[in-house]
């Protein structure tokens, strides 16, 4: 648990507080919000709506891929201590996605026409380009609540819930984590568990896997209007303080995802020996995925800077293996400013049912997907965050990052006309974020 | 399969050797640097935003946790 | 020859350091404990980076106001490595009792603190009566009752 610095009510918080209270009409609490707090808290000040007792973190993130997806995500996180070491954390996230996303079809030496996933209308892809469906537009709202408290001298329990809703997707989840401190709180062993249940109701219904994606206006073969999936996650963690400047963490996690794992908007092209598309069918993934990962992190506090290094290795029964190396170096500057350069490297192998396209001469396998996100790829992220402490004690920070994704050919011969085409175009994205803590 | 087993054993040994070192660590009054917010293992807001991007664009997710460190008070 | 020189240096150094160490934090504490003999002494260890310490300050101030005429004395030891951080803390959290600055944590080491904050309560007879590990604002009435009981004793 980090030290939470106390906040005197700032004008923005007082204004927010009054605005909220005006809506609810609670006069008694309104008075306490505008006063400077004495060190002794009056009963009114202990009420939930006393914003000066909350530590708030807000951020807005802009994500933009060249020619593809753009997203804006806004989040506000509030943390408040009730009794000694009893904390409530509430978070609200809203994000909206627009732009074009690959539909799984392979590029061709001619113009292609595809049906929109909804079944209404179609779109065209120019010669030689990766087919991208640009009807993708969605807004999502997410709520998280987490309660943490000690349950004995050395044990802390944290439990919470998650709710996330977008036009065609609902996700409900619960989690619980137990942490045990020993060696004078130098070592912490923890075990965490989470369960998520998601319901997908895609526009145009759930397509029958491996069936032809029909032309616009023609009904697809369908399995129904909606489907579900459940995710169970177990995480074992060990945190160890090495010395006054250094802390390390090791985690092992195991998760099982069960249910509808297909992307109903994606298909796989079937090409002939000349590399020309003869058919386009809905993808098919197994209805279960078991993932495991090991994670190690270390943070070291030098005299004027902090370095954060982490490594994660993930493997699953879809035969995907990945390595993630992440590093951050926070350098403290004068007057409460800091700069934090960041570099991340990620690499993954393709799942055993990933195919960029299928050959007409072969049988269609039981499981196949052309989603490059489960194909072989390398990615790297470089960026920096600049933060400052304002005169009113609040914090402002800006983050700019560049994310580069290089999908790779994991050994599929580009037959016929495909040999002259770029099937693994890199994806380049910029991330810009503003943070405000108060 | 064997590779997995070997990996888990290696990790367990590393973890056990670290956890078993009762002389590793600091005295309760030496936690000034560790108590800083900048020494927390993950950021309140940034970690979730990043995880969301990478979850949408890559095949791996999660694996990170939250406990331990800090001022160790009470 | 070199060995003799070395021994002389060592002796000189130890004599010198004894003079320099005449006013160590521990010496200051011993002096205060001796000065307040016969009173109930509440000795608190705190640091600027310790959250519960911040909550304990107003309560200790309250105890001083309420019971100093009854013979309660509150003394504190600050273990910040940088005393300037402690000074900043005291600007936001003013206190009504003295502070001994123990940046090398020699007194903390001597008392073998189990966690931050820690407090040690000495009875009127000068012996250690109660040890508090941590500070829980829910327990202040119990803490106060303990002090009242000790103040009542000879």
How do the strands and helices of this protein lay out in sequence?
The complex is a heterotrimer of chains A (438), B (74) and C (154).
Chain A: H1 11-24, H2 27-34, E1 54-65, E2 69-81, E3 87-102, E4 112-115, E5 122-125, E6 132-152, E7 155-166, E8 169-182, E9 187-200, E10 206-207, E11 222-224, E12 227-243, E13 246-259, E14 267-271, E15 277-282, E16 288-301, E17 305-316, E18 321-332, E19 337-348, E20 358-359, E21 376-389, E22 395-408, E23 427-437
Parallel strand pairs in A: 14-20
Antiparallel strand pairs in A: 1-2, 1-23, 2-3, 3-6, 4-5, 6-7, 7-8, 8-9, 9-12, 10-11, 12-13, 13-16, 14-15, 16-17, 17-18, 18-19, 19-21, 21-22, 22-23
Chain B: H1 2-19, H2 46-57
Chain C: H1 2-20, H2 25-35, E1 40-46, H3 51-67, E2 72-78, H4 83-92, E3 99-101, H5 106-111, E4 118-122, E5 128-133, H6 140-152
Parallel strand pairs in C: 1-2, 2-3
Antiparallel strand pairs in C: 1-4, 4-5
Compose a concise summary of this entry.
The complex is a heterotrimer of chains A (438), B (74) and C (154). Chain A has 438 residues and is mainly β.
